[in-house]
Write a structure and sequence with these properties.
CATH architecture of the largest domain: 3-Layer(aba) Sandwich
Distance between the termini: 76 Å
Number of helices: 14
Strand order of the largest sheet: 3-10-9-8-7-4-5-6
Shape: elongated
Order of helices and strands: HHHEEHHEHEHEEHEHEEEHHHEEHEEH
CATH superfamily of the largest domain: Type I PLP-dependent aspartate aminotransferase-like (Major domain)
Length: 488
């Protein structure tokens, strides 16, 4: 039963391939789970894939193969019909059944598990959060059991809903809950119709770019500012113009002097990324006056609700509901794996946003939205935020204390600690070396747009640095710096 076929030359012209026993190595298990015809078809398919039956090879007649295998003629016929349906063979009547031509195949070898690849100047990270990693909430603070119950209940509720296309703008209940949360936490009064649930920050950003037809325009971006936002602008066909940032936020006067003809500004007014400063009231008024009637402001509420020292300042959109588009996300408060974000648009843009969402940027699956709606409605989200803020404040103090104990100067920066380095120090190389020992600091220099302003440093996220491990993690990082000759 396991003989190897003897191949004749010029099979493409129609040779007949016969094994030493005429069975192509097919084995029959009469007590097996598969029917006899399925076993025969599987055996011939394997012979074709492995090259033991080349294209053009003629298969035995139904009678011949049935006799060889000791099965009924109809069983072989059924196997051949299955092979023909799958385009493995071609039935040519009196000319017999022949192996069809197929593209060459290669055996697929599973790739070993690996971490995320590097992105531009940033080193690749592990698939799970590491100490000092930015942009991820604390894994040990996530209410996993409660969230699992919410997901399970939402799945049961979703089954009872009549089948149909979900609202591309998001589930009405969740949009109403987000609007209520924004009124309480961010001082932003809006209608549920202005809220669009998106596939995380990226989905909201893409929706904005399409909605305001940004392609071919220019935009102010903060310098320093979020590097991936500049990358996203580039993919959207927008030229990013860096505008200096100081402790008061974006320098509007400098932006007007440098590039007065931009179509919109992208800002992190609540907590500037990466410096952590809140935009002053004077700068807010200046920015809104600049935008009045002619330009847009895209507000990335980067950690705005996670102000650790005092109550978060109101959202910029709360001061002008006509020119500001407000982007928020649950990635840094709940989990990045949810891919849940939202966009609040002025009333004049609701129709445009509805059309874009309905055709190109629909909301995430309803089940996750329904679970989040219940989580918000029952007050779990606000309680979760309070717990996180207390823990993050303690963790940030622990990291800063450990650095001070080793005589390293540092500065609090939102949910991270900024560790300045001397000019000329390659912070990207240091970040890559730290990754090798299980740490994930982020280099500061790539956040700058202008070479003249560029500074070297490391951003140390504090969310996944428990207080009792802060000193050990800091010492491990400083050992990496010491090996490169970096000292206080």
């Amino acid at each position: 039963m396991d003989g190897i076929p003897e191949r004749a030359k010029s099979c493409e012209s129609g040779c007949t391939i016969r094994g030493m026993d005429g069975s192509f190595g097919i084995s029959i298990d009469r007590g097996g789970r598969l029917s006899l015809s399925e076993q025969i078809a599987d055996g011939i398919r394997a012979a074709i894939r492995e090259g033991r039956l080349p294209p053009g090879a003629r298969l035995p007649s139904w009678n011949d193969l049935a006799t060889q295998l000791g099965v009924a003629r109809g069983t072989v016929r059924s196997a051949y019909e299955s092979l023909a349906d799958g385009q493995f063979v071609i039935a040519a009547g009196a000319a017999g059944t022949r192996v069809a031509k197929r593209p060459p195949t290669s055996r697929i070898v599973p790739e070993p598990a690996k971490g995320k690849e590097s992105f531009g100047p940033f080193p690749g990270g592990a698939t799970s959060p590491l100490p000092f990693q930015l942009g991820v909430p604390a894994t040990d603070l996530f209410p996993a059991a409660l969230w699992s119950r919410k997901l399970a209940q939402a799945a049961r509720d979703a089954i009872a809903v009549p089948t149909g296309y979900p609202d591309a703008a998001g589930e009405p209940g969740l949009r109403a809950e987000i609007a209520g949360y924004l009124a309480v936490a961010r001082g932003l009064a809006c209608r549920p119709a202005q809220v669009f649930v998106t596939q995380g920050y990226a989905g909201a950003f893409s929706l904005v770019m399409r909605m305001i037809r940004a392609h071919g325009s220019k935009a102010w971006v903060e310098d320093p500012g979020y590097p991936f936002a500049r990358t996203a602008l580039g993919w959207s066909g927008v030229e990013a113009v860096g505008v200096p940032v100081d402790r008061d936020g974006l320098d509007v006067a400098a932006g007007i002097a440098k590039a007065p003809d931009v179509a919109f500004a992208l800002v992190t007014a609540g907590q500037q990324a990466p410096l952590g400063h809140t935009m002053s009231l004077e700068r807010r008024h200046a920015l809104l006056d600049w935008a009045a009637g002619r330009r847009w402001i895209v507000e990335d509420d980067f950690l705005g609700e996670l102000q650790l020292v005092r109550r978060a300042a109101p959202a910029l959109a709360s001061m002008d509901a006509r020119r500001v588009l407000h982007i928020g996300s649950f990635s840094k408060t709940m989990s990045p794996s949810l891919r849940m974000g939202f966009l609040v648009v002025p009333m004049d843009l609701v129709d445009a946003a509805t059309q874009v969402a309905g055709t190109l940027e629909p909301a995430p699956p309803p089940v996750v939205q329904m679970a989040l709606e219940s989580f918000l409605h029952e007050g779990h989200y606000l309680r979760h935020l309070r717990r996180m803020k207390r823990a993050y404040a303690e963790r940030r103090e622990a990291v800063m204390g450990a650095l001070a104990a080793r005589s390293f100067a540092c500065e609090a920066s939102g949910l991270s600690v900024r560790l300045p380095l001397a000019d000329g120090v390659d912070d990207g190389a240091l970040a890559r070396e730290a990754m090798a020992v299980g740490l994930s600091p982020v280099p500061l220099s790539p956040w700058f747009v202008s070479d003249a302003m560029r500074c070297s440093g490391l951003l140390l996220g504090v969310t996944n640095v428990p207080v009792d491990r802060a000193t050990a993690h800091v010492n491990a990082l400083l050992d990496v710096l010491a090996r490169r000759g970096v000292r206080p």
